[in-house]
Fold each of these.
Amino acid sequence: MKTEVISTVEQPEKGALRGAALIKKGELVAFPTETVYGLGADGLNGQAVNKIFEAKGRPNDNPLILHVAEKSAVRALWKETPPLAEILTDTFWPGPLTLIYNRSAAVPNEVTAGLDTVAVRMPDNPTALALIRASETPIAAPSANLSGRPSPTTAEHVLLDMEGRIPLLLNGGPCRFGVESTVLSLVDKPTILRPGAVTKEMLEAVIGPVALSGSILSPLLAGEKALSPGMKYKHYAPKAQVIVVSGEAAACAGRILELYDKMEAQGHICEIAATVQTIAYYQGKRCSLMGDRENPATLCANLFSLLREMDKRADVILSEGVEATGAGLAFMNRLLRAAGFCIERV
Ligand code: TXA
Ligand code: MG
């Protein structure tokens, strides 16, 4: 299969119409969102949804998010509307917040992997919204990477993983946030299953106390049940070994330099993911700027593309860790998974 690429940077509508024609035929279309690129299919067509799992090599017990283009479209997908949903959608939609609640009969089993609940979000991206509207159906979409690889934040990343596996890619340029949406379950008390750009603090300002699922910063214990099935799989992993050193900036930099020299002496090729606070320490070493420790959203925005880039040059990636609050929680959640939880605190 040849993968057609249409740029939607200037005119989302034209590409969206071509995409919608494929979605309506039960085919797959990769498209940009404000978080990462998605791999979309008609979310009410179980056979079309199955093609997503095939193209990604995704385990079929891992449910998908339905993407809508109007806030009101969620009503047909949930059994009833939970009390907190309205204020959350009014505040954060369109945007990087996915809400989970009991599903309606309209949602096929293929989307929910047999669960009684369904995840829904309204993306904040002109191409995504135009595609969903023209398709006249909710679009089921996971991130458009091969299962286990870092999520794609540019059309080039999507092509590297998906070329020849899908008929169409809509290229809307790089994604703004760079990490996937916050996933919030409203089934019982509000609980974050996956942190993202809509932070715990932002949610609490609107709805009061929000719980964090236990496995956000630690691996699942043997026998522990994943609240969000996606959390149990190895994720976001480059081929290189990722080592995280967490702590105050200067201490992190000192330890990273020690590890760099030690591992290079052992024959490894290392690269450091640096921050504006520490890059001066790494002069003469292989390193790339990831962002600003004081503004972890900048670290999120670059993390996945930097992991892919550094993976081409190094077999050991040394990264600083930051405090897991605000946007730092989403950053540490993705980084620790990419590192297989290999972290040293200094
Ligand atoms: O930003 C995003 O959310 C991107 C863009 C494309 O929208 N999508 C995305 O999808 O990250 P995916 O499939 O890579 O991640 C969805 C996560 C998985 O961890 C999955 O297990 C969880 O949401 N999930 C989906 N439905 C669920 C449900 N009913 N209950 C619990 N977890 C669910
Ligand atoms: Mg994913």
Amino acid sequence: MKLSLAAKLVFSYCLIAIFLVASLLLVSNYFFQKQFEVYLAHKQEMKNQEVVNLIASSYTEGGTPPGGHFFETLGNTLLEQGIVLMVYDTAGTELFCVTKQAHGCCERESGGMEAYMKETFPGYSGEYTEDKIDFFSDKGLALGGVTLGYYGPFYIDEGEHNFISRWSGAFLATGAVFLAAAIGIGFFMASKISAPLQKVTQQAKSIAEGNYGQRIAETTNTAEIDALSASIDHLAESLQTQLALKKRMAGDYSHEFRTPLTALQTNLEAMIDGLWQPTPERLEGLRGEITRLGQMVSEVDRLVEVQSRPVQLNKTSYDVTEQAAGVARAFESEIQKKGLAVLVEGGACFIWADYSRFGQVLVNLVSNAVKYTPPGGRVVIEAKNTAKGTRLTVQDTGAGIDEADRPYIFDHLYRADTSRTRETGGSGIGLSVAREIVQAHGGSIAVQGAAGGGSCFVVLLPGEEES
Ligand code: ADP
């Protein structure tokens, strides 16, 4: 059964309150009872002494006992208080016994006392006890003896019983107040916690329905809930960015393919209608467009391939500086045409990678550097082994990439400067393929601004042990 947060909190607060009150009640009851028993036993002793003193003072100086009426009144009064009185003379002869006077009232009284005590003190283990006390005149003359029978070790009267009841009642009332407070605090805390949580849930639902524009924004005084709200807001923001990117990508793809296709169609129609002569130059131009379209399709294919399943890597250890020099040589004619200086610096640098896949990364980085660096510029490729792995940089003196574009440069079809890249024939796919491959190697790729305004692409690859 699923319980709401409020129910759980209220339940746990109540449990704590019950536990606290019950343990407090048990402990204090135990000590109270102990102390109370001591007090009552002492009280009984005092009372006995009082009775004996009263009887002794009723004797004449010569040692003559008072009249029978005195003992009868005293005996009955004491019997009502739970004490059975017997008086003897110095020879031990019984002068008075309340049981004989009370005609069975004594047994009734003592039986009632026992039941009453057992009801008041459930653990009461008292029994009928008799205290025999001799008494003397002021001058030390022996006057006789008294036997006081009662339920011992103590007996409580109605006043004391009322005190105990009130005391227990006060404890129960405290318990009830504690419980009510626990329920109140539980509901208060639950509303404090669950209200913002409900907002977060609402926001998550709203995101699931595709509404990425809303933000929770409100803060609470609970750090965890604030962190959760911030994460949900962050998620909404990333999804919003992704959605915008997807829309832009869809537009870019259709634009990218439609433009050359329209050009091809209008040119071919003009030739078919006889408006244009199909000269070798014109046909060559059309073939160029078709080649570019074919290249774009194969780049999209490559991207789909690396993104749709894990890149299979066949890793070996080889010198990446040598590989970079080979890649640079492949662009020899273009480099010469633009009069660029392409330098591969640093000595042999061994990496643990898939030669052919990592070659694609180098081709993309070097071809971009060559493509986006104006004539007379300079491209430097350098690989270095560091404590954390290998650091490969491809730096150029081209136009560079705006800081605002840098976070998106590795997204497919993203081009920093659309007009410039259209001229250079870029499709915005190369860097996304490069990032997929680098990440499959456990590495990372980023772009920084280079000194002199160009760009510096940095690839970090883990060493053989870490990868
Ligand atoms: P493209 O085929 O357009 O070059 P990439 O994915 O390789 O596709 O690059 C994405 C975009 O990044 C490019 O269109 C360009 O705007 C920018 N870019 C990449 N490399 C460089 C560079 N070395 N200098 C300036 N801009 C670059």
